[in-house]
Structures are given as structure tokens and as C-alpha cells.
Design a protein that fits this description.
Number of helices: 3
Number of strands: 7
Order of helices and strands: HEEEEHEEEH
Structural class: alpha/beta
Protein name: PqiC family protein
Shape: elongated
Helix content: 25-40%
Strand content: 25-35%
Length: 188
């Protein structure tokens, strides 16, 4: 009588072990050490931020080859990609001219993540006065690419670097009195 009970118990434990899934790892685009600038009294407000729907999800999406995409079921953003980008940019955008309150509109065209190759952030953006009535510049397009190692942590760090560089370009444009777009190089 005890023998069938042991077999049943072992079988049940084996089934439970087989159903076990890998734990979910959470990642953020906000670096551990935020940019601190004592000259700033106010940040640049994000008026609008959009990303392609294919990557706006809690799970990290990576490209596979020229045509494929993979949704990583155990590698997640801490929030939706829009919220991650908004939070990371808000932490790093600085308005060095508090008399001129500005906001920015951002349209992410591409957010490519390829483990072992690179992270790419391609964004159209425009600075405006805070009331939205006056455009401070033409629409700019920044394409930022950072090499990445094979791990997801290295890929997220590459995308953090792209976000940091985008924030620096927006900060540069906000501080400038010229209406032209700042140039971005493709290397970190």
C-alpha cells in the first residue's frame, strides 16, 4: 500500500518540476546613476512619445535575422517600452534656460535590439515652447546605434546608452539659440 503512494508522490513531484518555468528578469532603460546637473532648475517636458507597436510591450523584443522577431518571455521591461523611454529621458533631459520652458514630441521609428550586435534607436523629434504654439526647430531625426554583447543585460546597456545620447542631443538643441538640428554620430 505504501509503495503505490510513493510512486504517485514521485510522479506528482516530477510533473510539478516539469511545469516549472524560468523566472522573469526585469530590465530598465533608466541607468542606476542618473545624470545630475546642478545648473538646471527644470527638465524638458515630454509632450508626446510613441513607439512602434511591435516593440511596445512588457516583454523585450529582439530581431532575428532580416525578417524575424522574437518576444522574450522571461526578459521583461519594468514597464511598457513607452513608459521606460519616458522615464529614462525625463531623468536625463535638462532645461538650461528656465525662462524658456520647452517640451518635446518624440516618434520612435525603430527600436532594434540584436544580441551580440547592437541596439538601435531611430527617433523623429521636435522641441516646442511649453504652450505648444511655437516650434523652436524643424523636426529632427536622430539614429543612434551602440554595439552590444550577446547577453540581454549588455543589450539593455546599449539601449541605455542610446537613450542617454538622445537626451544629450535634445539638451543641446534646447540650450541653443539656433533652429538647426544637432548632429548625432552612430558610435557611442
Amino acid at each position: 500500500m505504501a509503495f503505490p503512494l510513493k510512486i504517485t508522490l514521485v510522479a506528482a513531484l516530477s510533473l510539478l518540476a516539469a511545469c516549472r518555468s524560468d523566472p522573469i528578469q526585469f530590465h530598465t532603460l533608466t541607468p542606476a546613476q542618473p545624470v545630475v546637473n546642478s545648473r538646471s532648475t527644470a527638465g524638458i517636458q515630454i509632450e508626446m512619445l510613441t513607439v512602434p507597436p511591435q516593440v511596445d510591450r512588457p516583454q523585450i523584443v529582439v530581431r532575428e535575422g532580416n525578417t524575424g522577431m522574437a518576444i522574450l518571455e522571461t526578459e521583461w521591461w519594468g514597464a511598457s517600452l513607452v513608459d521606460e523611454l519616458r522615464s529614462a529621458l525625463t531623468d536625463q533631459m535638462i532645461n538650461n534656460n528656465p525662462q524658456r520652458r520647452v517640451s518635446v514630441r518624440l516618434e520612435v521609428q525603430r527600436f532594434d535590439s540584436i544580441p551580440g550586435q547592437y541596439g538601435l534607436l531611430d527617433v523623429k523629434w521636435r522641441l516646442r515652447t511649453n504652450n505648444g504654439s511655437e516650434s523652436l526647430m524643424d523636426t529632427c531625426r536622430s539614429t543612434l546605434q551602440t554595439p552590444s554583447g550577446p547577453s540581454i543585460d549588455e543589450l539593455v546597456a546599449a539601449q541605455q546608452n542610446n537613450v542617454r545620447r538622445l537626451a544629450a542631443l535634445i539638451n543641446q538643441a534646447a540650450a541653443s539659440t539656433q533652429k538647426g538640428c544637432p548632429s548625432a554620430s552612430t558610435s557611442p
